[in-house]
Amino acid sequence: MKTHTILITGAGSGIGAGIAGQLARDGHHVVVTDLSAQAAESVARAIREAGGSAEAHALDVTSDESVATVLRALSRPLDVLVNNAGLQHVAPLEEFPMEKWELLVQVMLIGVARLTRAVLPGMRERGFGRIVNIGSIHSLVASPFKSAYVSAKHGLLGFSKVIALETAGTDITVNTICPTYVKTPLVDRQIADQARTRGIPESEVVSQVMLKPMPKGVFISFEELAGITAFLISPAARNITGQTITVDGGWTIQ
């Protein structure tokens, strides 16, 4: 197996940290980035202590300067970009602060474009690149009180398809993984927010809002998302591009 240098955004916790750990165990060099330098270094240190290869950088995906600084500081050329950074805010539109609405789109859509734009020249020059975007079930369906998140994640699918076409002339692929709920700190906060917004107990948020639409009825694991990412960056997937990989326990087949 060819090993790669893989930059993951939002990897200081949750899905990003889980993917980083698994890909490092597979032998890849992982660039752990997060808005929090401390969180990124904590994940990278754990990877190194387990025998893996990792470096950490603070990265603000809403800043051109931050993106450029990190890319200049990398210890080796970048082969794979995993756009994972995200955040959530749950509120009816009339109560949704517009600065928060804009921030969600900045991080999860414009930030993806910003970072992808920055890494593509190097990938083109080296004749290889893999871009994996972490979307969501909310790239495909909607839920109330999540207008900014749903808008950003829907936009991500269109963006991925366009860049897949723009890079079709070289060995670069762009795909989006769309999971339902993964048990992360972000989802834990959503449970409390949804309970408050809907006026129901937190236990009902899990059973009636999050898991009820899924015939499988279980949360998605980090290992599943890491395994799909590993496949998408492998030689077997060189002709898979512009695709939406839906990991939803049967949600959207009903």
Automatic annotation (TrEMBL):
<dbReference type="GO" id="GO:0003858">
    <property type="term" value="F:3-hydroxybutyrate dehydrogenase activity"/>
</dbReference>
<dbReference type="GO" id="GO:0032787">
    <property type="term" value="P:monocarboxylic acid metabolic process"/>
</dbReference>
<dbReference type="InterPro" id="IPR002347">
    <property type="entry name" value="SDR_fam"/>
</dbReference>
<dbReference type="InterPro" id="IPR011294">
    <property type="entry name" value="3-OHbutyrate_DH"/>
</dbReference>
<dbReference type="InterPro" id="IPR020904">
    <property type="entry name" value="Sc_DH/Rdtase_CS"/>
</dbReference>
<dbReference type="InterPro" id="IPR036291">
    <property type="entry name" value="NAD(P)-bd_dom_sf"/>
</dbReference>
<comment type="similarity">
    <text>Belongs to the short-chain dehydrogenases/reductases (SDR) family.</text>
</comment>
<protein>
    <submittedName>
        <fullName>3-hydroxybutyrate dehydrogenase</fullName>
    </submittedName>
</protein>
<dbReference type="Pfam" id="PF00106">
    <property type="entry name" value="adh_short"/>
</dbReference>
<dbReference type="InterPro" id="IPR050259">
    <property type="entry name" value="SDR"/>
</dbReference>
